[in-house]
Amino acid sequence: MDAILLKGVRLAGGGKYDIRIEGNKIASINKYDGDKAPETQKAGSGADCRTIDCKNFYAVPGLFNMHTHSAMTLVRGVAKGERLHSWLDQIWQIESYLDDEAIYWGTKLAVLEMIKTGTTCFADMYWRIPQAMRAVDEMGLRANLSYVLLDGGDPEKARLQRKECEAMEKEARGWPSRVGFSLAIHADYTVCDENMEWAAGFAREHGLKIQAHLSETEKEMRDTIARYGFSPVAHFDKYGLINKDFIAAHGLWLSDTDIETLGSRGATVVHNINSNLMLSSGYKFKYKELRDAGATVCIGTDGTASSDNLDIRESMKTTLLLQWAWRRDPAAFPICELFKAATLNGARALGIDSGRIEEGALADIALIDVRRPAFVPDYDFLSNYVLAADSSCVDTLICDGRILMEGRKVQGEDEILDKAQENAFRLMRKAGICK
Fold first, then answer.
1. Domain presence at residue 205
2. Which of 258, 264, 403, 425 is spaced 20 to 30 A from 138 at the CA atom?
3. 381 shares its domain with 266
């Protein structure tokens, strides 16, 4: 299909429009005039144009999940009731049994879940990324997949990971344009200083984004200060890692100086509220302070082992309510800013011309079915979408100009569910978790 016409679709803020998609971009947005299409659209509305009747739909930009570990879908529900560091010990033991097939189907399951909940792009930090890339490519979503440095202070392991990362960067040059490659530093407590310094130079040389876990827990912050005499932020900054290409996951335990450093360098900080709550890491994310300092704030879910799902809309609701509660101020995080954090901010952080519904932007659009009780009355669409609805309201998802879901149906979803289930139990049997 060469073109798609979203006929009579509503946009947040009011008004009905005809949105024409050509190739992978939004070609035109015109005021809806009933069944009479504007002349600019008539010329191209033949057999090569698929028209979708959007009388019950709002169009929103596809969501960005800016921090996750996709194939962790296979360990959903495992190791509950643990704080981060003891939880990690259990998860790492299970992950030692991962293989290519598990990563492939686990990633497909993750992508299916994100499609179903309105996400069109995600930033991933996980293992065996050629298999993850294969899954993402087949499913049609956007992603930024990172090679993860996690050497545990072992010099030989650190050396081998550098070599693997160099080879992976070369391989990634042949990936489709929808899938980007980045470098990840798991955390300052799991990666040696030599690899942190190397990562800064390698990313700079190749123009790569750097993902990292940063100041996730109070223990991490205290341990780093006790060991080095400064915070995790200062540790990363020592090697020039904190800049406009730095994407920090969590950033929950930050001093005023840390916030100033992140903001002045133009870094991105990803809030993962459900994971933070699940692992008892904390909840006082300093959105206003980071925003005012100049940092870009985005929303993530983290992996399903710590957040249980990959639903960014749900994360948005929890984020909003907790910000309002702990600050005792319902104006602390306006819904319009939250929605920007879940869409446009992610696009900008990854350098993608998406996250907005405007002519010339990439066609990454979710169609929201508002013929549901949660959207009646329709006084404020964004409020209803974030606070009243659930993500089953996402009827259709378009990514890169291609329809990935329509009527909540995704091609091949039954096979994905079956294969993911099979591989999850196979992994757990190998790890001795179940028989």
1. yes
2. 425
3. no
What's the pLDDT band for 80 if we cut at 50, 70, 90? Answer: low
Please give the pLDDT value at position 88.
74
The full DSSP string for 314-347 is: HHHHHHHHHHHHHHT-TTSS-HHHHHHHHTHHHH
Residue 39 has pLDDT above 50, yes or no: no
The pLDDT of 94-117, averaged and rounded, is: 94
Q: Which of 298, 319, 301, 318 shows the shortest CA–CA distance to 310? A: 301
What residues make up the domain containing 374? 3-61+363-405
- Per DSSP, helices labelled H in 190-280 are 193-206, 218-228, 232-238, 256-264, 273-278
Report the number of distinct structural domains present in the chain: 2
In SS3 terms, 3-42 reads as EEEEEEEEECCCCEEEEEEECCEEEEEEECCCCCCCHHHH
Residue 109 lies in a domain: yes
Q: Which helix (H) or strand (E) holds 60?
A: strand 57-61
Verify that 114 and 159 share a domain, yes or no: yes
- One-letter amino acid at 195 equals N
Percent of the chain with pLDDT over 90: 86
pLDDT tens string 120-152: 999 999 999 999 999 999 999 999 999 999 999
Residue 121 neighbours by CB distance under 10 Å? 28
218-228 and 84-95 helices, crossing angle to 10°: 90
How many CB atoms are closer than 10 A to CB 17?
Answer: 19
Q: 68 and 43: one domain? A: no
In a domain, 425, yes or no: no
User: What whole-number distance in Å separates Cα of residue 309 and Cα of residue 316?
Assistant: 13
Question: Are 39 and 79 contained in the same domain?
Answer: no
Q: What is the pLDDT of residue 81?
A: 65
Q: Tokens in use for 418?
A: 């079956």
Query: Which CATH number goes with the domain that contains 182?
Result: 3.20.20.140
Mean pLDDT of 23-45: 73
pLDDT in tens, 361-400: 999 999 999 999 999 999 999 999 999 999 999 999 999 9
The pTM assigned to this predicted structure is 0.94
Is 411 within the bounds of a domain?
Answer: no
Q: Mean pLDDT in the chain?
A: 94
The H or E element spanning position 430 is helix 413-430
Distance CA 202, CA 133 (A): 21
